[in-house]
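Ticket closed. Logging final result for Alpha/beta hydrolase family protein.
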Amino acid sequence: MVLPGLPVNADTWAGVAGALGDVRVADLPGLGLSGGGPGDWGSWAAALEAGAPGRLHVIVGDRDPLTQEGRELLDALPQATVTVIAGAGCSPTPSG
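Final structure:
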């Protein structure tokens, strides 16, 4: 399962999903082309985990830290594991 974050949506990951094989790609509620919002993430995540056999692994770059909503989503996915990749990210960071 691939859950792309902004500024991309599930459609932009079609090629990656095809290359990986048996992978689904979905937009989080309120992101990409989906309806809903962060208030729906907990129930959505529970339904996703129940309907998605196998492992759920979250990969995030340390330059794109998880938001409060992202941490709450992970809390709703107790079987998920997380990898943080040092030096990675897609969002610009303010220069100091």
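The chain has three helices and two strands. No further action required.
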